[in-house]
Each structure stands twice: as C-alpha cells, then as structure tokens.
Write a structure and sequence with these properties.
The protein is mainly α and 434 residues long. The chain has one domain. It is built from 15 helices and no strands. The model is unreliable at 367-375 (pLDDT under 50).
C-alpha cells in the first residue's frame, strides 16, 4: 500500500498513551519528594517535562541532520523509508514549544531546574553570588535560552519542513519537470542545514542539558548527547518499520534496509561508548574540581544510573548485534531496538535528574552555592532511578511523538517513486557474511 491510513484504533491507542502521560505528569506535580517538597516548586514535574521534551525533540533534530547528510552525500539506500524520517523531523515544532515553556518558567521563576537562572547568582552584592556562574552569564541567561530555542530551533523546523515539502512535491510533479530539479533544491537546503546544525545543535544542548550542572562542562558533551539522540531515533525507526510492514505498508522495505539500520545501531552504540568513556577518562585524569564533581556525584549517589547506562547502552547491544546475522532477524532487532530506545531515554535521565536535584536541594538549603554541597545520599523518588510516574510520562510523550509521525505519514505517499535514488533503494542489497 502506498498511502498510509491513520486508523481510528491507532488514534485511540495513542491518545490513551497521551492521557496516561498527562495523568502521570499531573501526579508528578502533586507528589514531590519529601526532601525538596518544602520549597514548593514542583521539581519532579519540571524535570520530567525537560527530560522528555529534550529527548524527543533531540530525536527529531538528529533525524533532520541525518536526512540532510544523506542528501548531501548522494545516499539512496534509505529512500524506501524516508517518509518516516521526514515525519520524525516535523515533531520539532511540538518539542520546541515544550522547551520554550520551560524557558518561560525560568523567567517567571516557576521552577529551579537551572542554578544559573536563580535570583542573585550573578549579582556581586547578593549573598547568593556565584563567581563561576557569573563568568558564564554571557551565555547562560534567559535571553539566550528562550531566544536560542525559538530562533535557532525555529530555523531548524523551517528547513526540515522545506525539505519535506520539496520531497512531497517531487513525488507529485516529478514526471512533469526536469529530472533532479526538486532534488537540487533539496540538496541546497540540506547543505544550508548541515553547518547550521553542526554549530547551533551543540549550543542548544549546552543550554538545555549541560547547564543543568552549571559549574561543569565537557567539550565532548554535545557529540555524546547527539549520538544518544540518533540511537534512540534509529531504534524507534526499526520498531515503526517492522510494525507498519506487519500492517501491509512499506512492503518494499526489505531485510537489507533493516540490516543497515541495525548496523547503524551497532556502530553508533560503539561511538556513543567512545564519547562516554573519553569524557569520563579525560575529566578523571585532569582531576579539576569543577569537572570531576559531575562524575563524583553520579558514582557516589547514583551507581545504578551510572553503571546501568553503560550496560544497557553498550554491553548488551554490542553482544547482541556483534554477529552479522542478528541484524537480519526481526525478533532480535525488535528486542534490541526496545532495549536501545529505553537505554538512551535512561541516558538523558542520568544527564538531567542528578543536577536538577542538587539545584533543588540548594534552594531548600539556601546557603550553598557550589554544586554538590547538599546532594545527599539515599533514595529520592523520581530522581535516583525512574519511577512508575516517569515511565508513564515517557509513554505519554512516545504516544504524542508517534501520533505526530502517523499524522504526517498519512499526508503523502509512502512510496516516493520520483525520487532519483528510488531504484537504488529498491534494489539495495547488503552482501551477507559470517
């Protein structure tokens, strides 16, 4: 079948997931951990909104980047399922709205996600003055956060939508115009997007995620985070393709295409681990206080998050996908894709939750200015490890993401017959080996 029909049963199921997520989000607003509840700023709610907003928006951004990279590199193997990736890219607008709401929360002091946004930290006359954060205030400020999210993120969405429109129009008018005419325009926008994304992507990652631990920084953090986004998006692509093939769609997507997606999942799991280890090893070796506190905090108080991250996102995918034939078996791919998707959602939980808990505890014990002073040990619900509410919120966001994807899938033919690389993708073959 060439045209996807968004069935009522699918809509109801996805809306049920969204309703579950909304209920869990409301409950996370009500049930704050006792250790920080006295401050009354609902840290668990806001951290869950940030965690899932960043995670799903980042997947959309990375797929836009990959589409642009493949177009620029004259790649054609992915054309058979490119409509899924185009639909992924259009979630950007939804995610950016969520992150802009968090930015407004900074301005209005509705939450304490970021220590740099607290009152008085950049004022030398304030008892809460923080010299390190004051030195970074040219970048870590509300104007940069909201402006970057809306302007830079808006530019990402504009180009993603432009490439999608050209792709759909190519399918409609491809036999009426000069061959490659639409594709040349797509290549122009892809070439425009790549350097913009390469420079602005890290800047927004630093704002949204790394600045949660405002005293800390890592030159590898952006690449580590972007690899995590791509792995999550790649795993979800595999799951959706296998599901849609079972419904009679994407019949021309073969084991060869799934094999290549499996290879990307395998290769980038290794690359993610390289970034993870290099970041940890260099900071440990340098032994600079402002940097090592990030890992000291996580190793001391969050060992399950720290070691679980490595096991789920490297050890298991590496062992499962190392053998070539496992990347050609749907059952193994589905299992590994679920594992990788959950693992990288866990990775963003690990990046965000400990730092935001420290900030909340600093607000409760309003005398501390250095990260980690009040990061006490012990179990803290919704922060030490994901709780049932966090899992429910993730399912709600996943339902929203897939709803947006299915909505856009239904708006264009799934079979882009006028793409100049259609035949290459149709006959794509990977030589199997043992």
């Amino acid at each position: 079948m060439k045209q996807f029909i968004f069935e009522a049963k699918q809509k109801q199921f996805l809306m049920g997931l969204m309703a579950l997520g909304a209920v869990c989000l409301v409950l996370s607003f009500i049930f704050e951990p006792a250790s920080i509840a006295e401050a009354g700023f609902h840290q668990r709610f806001w951290t869950n909104l940030l965690h899932n907003g960043v995670f799903f928006t980042g997947m959309s951004f990375m797929i836009t980047f990959v589409i642009a990279a493949f177009i620029t590199a004259y790649s054609g193997w992915h054309v058979m399922f490119k409509r899924i990736w185009e639909a992924f890219s259009l979630f950007l607008i939804v995610g950016l709205v969520i992150l802009a709401i968090i930015g407004l929360g900074n301005v209005m002091h509705l939450h304490h996600l970021y220590h740099w946004a607290a009152e008085g930290v950049t004022d030398p006359s304030s008892p809460h003055y923080d010299e390190i954060i004051a030195g970074k205030s040219g970048f870590l400020n509300n104007g940069w956060y909201i402006g970057g999210t809306l302007i830079i993120g808006g530019l990402w969405y504009f180009i993603a939508r432009k490439m999608r429109q050209l792709s759909v129009q190519e399918d409609i008018d491809g036999d009426k115009v000069e061959n490659f005419a639409y594709h040349r325009k797509m290549r122009f926008w892809a070439a425009v997007f790549l350097p913009i994304a390469a420079f602005t992507g890290p800047a927004l990652i630093w704002q949204w995620v790394m600045s949660v631990d405002a005293h800390w920084y890592s030159t590898l953090f952006a690449w580590y985070s972007m690899a995590s986004w791509f792995l999550a998006a790649c795993s979800l692509t595999i799951l959706l393709l296998i599901y849609l093939k079972s419904k009679g769609y994407f019949e021309k997507v073969t084991t060869e295409h799934l094999h290549d997606l499996g290879k990307y999942m395998f290769a980038f799991s290794i690359f993610w681990t390289y970034c993870w280890f290099s970041q940890y090893m260099l900071i440990w070796y340098g032994n600079v206080g402002e940097e090592t506190i990030y890992f000291k905090e996580r190793l001391t108080h969050y060992p399950v998050l720290f070691y679980g991250n490595l096991v789920v996102n490297f050890v298991l995918p590496f062992l499962i996908l190392m053998r070539n034939t496992t990347k050609r078996r749907k059952g193994t791919l589905v299992f590994t894709a679920i594992l990788v998707f959950i693992g990288h959602w866990w990775d963003y939980f690990y990046m965000i939750k400990p730092g935001t808990l420290i900030t909340a505890q600093e607000a409760v014990h309003s005398g501390a200015h250095e990260a980690g002073h009040h990061a006490g040990g012990g179990f803290v619900e919704g922060f030490t490890i994901p709780g049932l509410l966090e899992i429910g919120i993730m399912l709600g966001f996943l339902g929203l993401f897939i709803y947006v994807v299915f909505h856009h899938l239904s708006k264009a033919s799934l079979d882009p017959v006028n793409d100049p690389y259609y035949e290459e993708s149709l006959h794509h073959e990977v030589q199997p080996y043992e």
